[in-house]
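Saturday, quiet lab. Running sequence design on the structure tokens for the scaffold JK sent over.
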């Protein structure tokens, strides 16, 4: 029989760290911590398989599968804690926690203090001798259970949580501010009012049977896998819905038992910058989410961190010491113990750990550890530091790099000179580094109101996820370095300043005020996530410095890679940028972009609208020098590396003027009437331009175009050769579907090249190849390879033609296809390995069956997408080519692909 429940406690565990798929990350690590002697309250994990049973077959099936195992596991927890579930004198209280394979912070639900009812609260009172604590826990339980299990949580942003409303009312009546100011009698009143609210909304009594509570919470955790924010989080992080969540049931420990109790969150290194500094936040006499939710201002764990925090917050040393002392000061022994645990955990997992702990009456307990989420900059620094500290080897260091996250490092930072001039409005905590400039919005679901927005909130909650993702940056008035906003922003690599306490936010009037400055929705602000500064208006940015750790990672990537990374570049400027990012050659230089500027477009239009070969050749003669000098610039920028130049590709209609003034001007210049011009333009119109007169079909109709381009390329290369610069042209014929097409164009190109060589009395080597972007070309690649010296898979067109989706119209249905799970990914972004991939694989095999050394690459958008790069490596491509800013990503992805293979 399948095993669905894994217990842990007292230094023993049925699971372990590498069982994350089954136990979820949280469950697997709770087991592992037990095994390595870290103090963890006992409990058990219900596997992710049960979540799947629950989702596919329903509650009863899930219950039948696990009931006996759960009862046995509860008995073990009772035994280890010497308590009894549902007992009136000595009740066993547990938490019921979600936990998927990969951590999805705050996305799913957790219930604490489960097992409490009107009898058990008496038992807890007697046992702890602390009545206030007992009722505080009970109050929290009814609230959480009501929100999470009984569906009391408001669904829209206009509604307030009914429990919060009741608490706020009581605070107002009593003239108090903090939850900790409630008396025991207040808490008792709250429990009664909470239960009344539950009855009123749900029509049912609050369940007081602990077993009923437990099953309700377990189902609720399973349900939370399918809640809206979890679905959205999975979507932006590419987590499959099939994985499901595990459920962890664990004996409670209490950070809210008084002044010798506390709860907190800590990181073994800085998750923002990557510095090797232990850091974190805690609160005395508090429970669970209090630190993360930003209800009270959390205090720093280390003395050094506390001092740094005080400086940023503008708090003097006296006030810091009296009101916000560090754990190192308040509980030095427990601090030392915690410090030892974090060192042990980091050494064990060999990665930066993010941990949750609770201190109950002077005893330390760990409740969670995981590899911490971090910014792109921290990811790079931690990988390099750990390599240099000898903790991990080179391959592991590379494997710590998520290629897509490198993107964050390539974005602009504030220009230090401009920063000096800027007006600093406020200072908060540097929660997630980066530079953000945008217009203020106050609600997450309005983040797309402006092109660039900065989301300004008192604090964020998991519901705000989508808006946080859209906004350029996030500013919160409350919350610390471990607040929801901070953790999520670092995960997204989004600039965030949190806990800017001097900022007053008024959602109703949509304004934020600091001192006597009031900004309203739509006003510009700039956030510096590295210093916590909030500046008025826009601040100028500049390119980041990519030396140091970044280049160390890039060098490592080169050490382990087999494929080359080239870039798609149409201008010398792009070629230079890409070459700085380490591109070795150009995989796609599109020539059509060269025809749009100034005088060129006129000559181009004349060429297109010519009636005779003579007219056309005259216009082409005007274009030749432009093309030649463009090629000289690009070849020079990539001297020594291959540059693949694609001959004219788009339908000619794209080049003709579409507004009247330009049409009149052109008619005049060409010496024809408007009517004659318009009828020519009409002639060029096509029903299906993407499947029409384009690519090599143009060159076959008008060989003089191909000849002019070939001449420009060869002349440019020869001119550079004369200057001692090594140009390596590769001429690429687009949209070939039959070998005859390629042969036709190759003849024109070779003949032109020979002519140029004769004229100049010198030669250069060049290659002649083709795009493989029509399915028929992949199917007949063995024939095409007879003529072609290289293949470049144009996976944009190949995807378009294989699926039969027009790239320009796919936006109309693609969102539905993704929502309804018809497609897992947009195939224009992530290469469809199952279908299009087969054509690529076949194209490579057939091509090399004719020419074993045939050079093969890819030049579609996919060339910079990590999973597609992996695929390219596996089918034996020689290179990938992508846009300049994706080159570093592709370099790491290419290395990871090669490592994974060996
Ligand atoms: P999340 O995945 O959102 O972090 P958790 O399941 O980790 O949710 O729980 C939320 C909070 O409750 C955390 O601060 C955690 O440390 C605390 N918590 C969970 N279980 C217990 C427990 N058994 N005793 C004390 N605190 C707990
Ligand atoms: Mg947690
Ligand atoms: Mg194409």
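Result came back. Writing it out in full:
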């Amino acid at each position: 029989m399948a095993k669905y429940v894994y217990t842990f406690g007292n230094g023993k565990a049925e699971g372990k760290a590498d069982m994350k798929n089954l136990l979820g990350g949280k469950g697997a690590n709770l087991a592992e911590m037990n095994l390595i002697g870290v103090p963890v309250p006992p409990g058990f994990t219900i596997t992710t398989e049960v979540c799947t049973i629950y989702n596919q077959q329903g509650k009863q099936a899930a219950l039948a599968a696990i009931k006996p195992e759960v009862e046995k596991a509860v008995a073990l927890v009772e035994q280890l804690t010497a308590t009894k579930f549902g007992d009136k004198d000595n009740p066993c209280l547990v938490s019921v926690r979600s936990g998927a394979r990969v951590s999805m912070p705050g996305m799913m639900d957790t219930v604490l203090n489960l097992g409490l009812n009107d009898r058990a609260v008496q038992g807890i009172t007697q046992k702890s001798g602390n009545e206030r604590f007992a009722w505080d826990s009970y109050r929290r339980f009814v609230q959480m259970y009501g929100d999470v299990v009984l569906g009391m949580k408001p669904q829209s942003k206009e509604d307030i949580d009914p429990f919060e409303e009741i608490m706020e009312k009581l605070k107002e009546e009593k003239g108090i501010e903090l939850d900790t100011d409630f008396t025991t009698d207040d808490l008792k009143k709250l429990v009664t009012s909470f239960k009344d609210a539950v009855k009123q909304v749900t029509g049912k009594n609050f369940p007081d049977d602990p077993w009923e509570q437990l099953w309700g919470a377990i189902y609720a955790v399973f349900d939370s896998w399918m809640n809206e924010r979890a679905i959205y989080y999975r979507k932006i992080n590419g987590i499959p819905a099939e994985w499901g969540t595990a459920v962890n049931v664990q004996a409670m420990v209490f950070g809210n038992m008084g002044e010798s109790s506390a709860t907190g969150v800590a990181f073994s290194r800085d998750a923002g910058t990557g510095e090797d500094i232990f850091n974190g936040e805690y609160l005395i006499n508090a429970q669970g989410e209090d630190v993360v939710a930003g209800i009270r201002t959390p205090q720093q764990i280390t003395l050094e961190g506390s001092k740094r925090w005080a400086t940023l917050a503008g708090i003097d040393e006296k006030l810091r010491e009296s009101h916000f002392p560090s754990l190192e000061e308040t509980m030095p022994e427990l601090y030392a113990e915690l410090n030892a645990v974090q060192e042990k955990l980091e050494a064990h997992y060999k990665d930066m750990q993010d941990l949750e702990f609770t201190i109950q009456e002077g005893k330390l307990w760990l409740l969670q550890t995981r590899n911490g989420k971090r910014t792109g900059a921290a990811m790079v620094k931690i990988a390099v530091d750990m390599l240099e500290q000898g903790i991990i080897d080179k391959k592991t260091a590379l494997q710590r790099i998520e290629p897509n996250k490198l993107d964050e490092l390539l974005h602009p930072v504030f220009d230090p000179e401009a920063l000096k001039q800027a007006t600093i409005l406020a200072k908060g905590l540097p929660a997630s580094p980066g530079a953000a400039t945008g217009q203020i919005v106050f609600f997450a679901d309005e983040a797309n109101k402006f092109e660039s927005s900065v989301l300004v909130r008192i604090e964020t909650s998991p519901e705000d996820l989508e808006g946080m993702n859209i906004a350029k940056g996030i500013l919160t008035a409350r919350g610390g370095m471990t607040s929801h906003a901070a953790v999520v922003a670092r995960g997204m690599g989004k600039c965030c300043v949190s806990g800017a306490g001097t900022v007053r936010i008024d959602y109703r009037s949509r304004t934020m005020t600091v001192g006597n400055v009031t900004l309203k929705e739509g006003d510009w602000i700039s956030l510096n996530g590295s210093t916590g500064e909030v500046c008025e208006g826009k601040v100028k940015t500049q390119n980041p410095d990519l030396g140091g750790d970044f280049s160390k990672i890039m060098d490592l990537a080169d050490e382990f890679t087999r494929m080359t990374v080239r870039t798609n570049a149409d201008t010398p400027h792009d070629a230079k940028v890409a070459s700085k990012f380490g591109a070795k050659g150009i995989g796609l230089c599109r020539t059509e972009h060269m025809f749009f500027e100034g005088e060129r477009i006129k000559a181009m239009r004349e060429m297109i609208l010519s009636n005779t070969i003579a007219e056309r050749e005259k216009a082409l003669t005007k274009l030749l020098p432009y093309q030649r000098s463009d090629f000289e610039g690009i070849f020079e920028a990539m001297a020594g590396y291959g540059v693949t130049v694609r001959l004219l590709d788009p339908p000619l209609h794209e080049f003709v003027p579409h507004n009247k003034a330009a049409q009149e001007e052109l008619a005049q210049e060409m010496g024809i009437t408007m009517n004659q011009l318009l009828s020519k333009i009409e002639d060029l119109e096509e029903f299906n331009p993407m499947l029409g007169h384009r690519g090599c079909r143009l060159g076959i109709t008008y060989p003089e175009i191909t000849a002019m381009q070939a001449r420009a390329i060869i002349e440019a290369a020869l001119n550079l050769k004369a200057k001692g610069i090594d140009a390596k042209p590769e001429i690429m014929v687009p949209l070939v579907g039959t070998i005859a097409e390629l042969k036709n164009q190759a003849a024109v190109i070779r003949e032109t090249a020979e002519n140029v060589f004769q004229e100049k009395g010198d030669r250069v080597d060049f290659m002649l190849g083709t795009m493989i972007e029509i399915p028929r070309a992949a199917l007949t690649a063995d024939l095409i390879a007879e003529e072609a010296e290289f293949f470049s898979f144009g996976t944009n067109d190949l995807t378009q033609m294989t699926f039969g989706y027009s790239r320009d119209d796919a936006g109309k249905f693609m969102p539905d296809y993704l929502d309804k799970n018809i497609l897992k990914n947009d195939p224009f972004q992530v290469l469809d390995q199952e279908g299009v991939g087969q054509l690529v694989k076949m194209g490579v095999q057939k091509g090399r069956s004719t020419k074993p050394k045939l050079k093969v690459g890819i030049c579609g958008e996919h060339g910079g997408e990590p999973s597609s790069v992996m695929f390219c490596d596996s089918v034996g491509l020689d290179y990938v080519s992508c846009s300049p800013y994706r080159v570093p990503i592709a370099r790491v992805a290419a290395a990871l692909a090669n490592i994974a293979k060996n």
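Notes for JK: The first strand starts at residue 5 and ends at 9. The chain has five domains: 1-116+210-252, 118-207, 262-374, 412-542, 561-651+686-901. Ask whether to fix the surface positions before the next round.
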